[in-house]
Known about the structure:
Distance between the termini: 26 Å
Number of helices: 8
Number of domains: 2
Largest sheet: 10 strands, mixed
Strand order of the largest sheet: 3-2-1-4-5-10-9-6-7-8
Amino acid sequence: MSEPVEVEKIVAGVADSPSSRAAVEWAAREAELRHIPLVLLHANTLPIGAWPVAPMPVGYLDWQMKVGRELLDDTAQLVRSATAGAVSPTTELIVATPTAALMNASRTAGMVVVGSRGRGALSRFVLGSVSTGVLHHARCPVVVVHDEGPSPAADAPVLLGFDGSPSSQAAIALAFDEAYRRGVGLVAMHSWWSPGAFEMPGFDWETLRPEVNRQVREMLTVWQHRFPDVPVERVVVADRPAERLVERSSLCRLVVVGSHGHGAVGSAVLGSVSNAVVQAARVPVIVARPR
């Protein structure tokens, strides 16, 4: 019998941008899939530096709050329509920076969902400041959704990137759970690397591959027992993990990675692989940050 991962509630950041709309739609489907509450959060930032000499226009803050409330009302209606009424979200309008508001919300959320960029992003290939800040400092798994991503097939698998580090256990659990709930398979990709190994004279990856395969099989066995209904394809590659994950991601529903691997300095630092995958993959990416 499968052992699903419990998520208490989902918090989705709301902004007036295409990627935020895509993120809210993804969060709505996830909340419906898990039968859990969805909170729509919009933050209004005080314009402290906008008028350094003259005072801000009379009524500006009231207007800002009115616009925020209307945006939340419209977004809540979007959720109800997208789920045929199955999800009735609550809304929160907060005076704070969006990053600070979402970071604080992550303390009690089971998952935070954000768009890849806001209206002010300079490039569609660069994460916005809000999604970057949340990815680095949230206290729960973070999902980043792009608005121009492909539409995967209904039976497209979930893609897991893991390195066997202790922090990757959360990613493995979440990836199996996401595949189980969607009734799809799981592609578990492990990229073996060791500093300087590939430049060492006489190094032969093919000789090492069987042992790496055996270790990967052992790492996944316990999870396959917990989720016996999830078919698993193990993929072992050599080096360049971010590049390999991004290449495979176009054929998958979503990607799940850990927040940092063997080389990360601390839990507040997003690993280089996770950061690169979130930036380059066009499908939703879940970064399984630790509590």
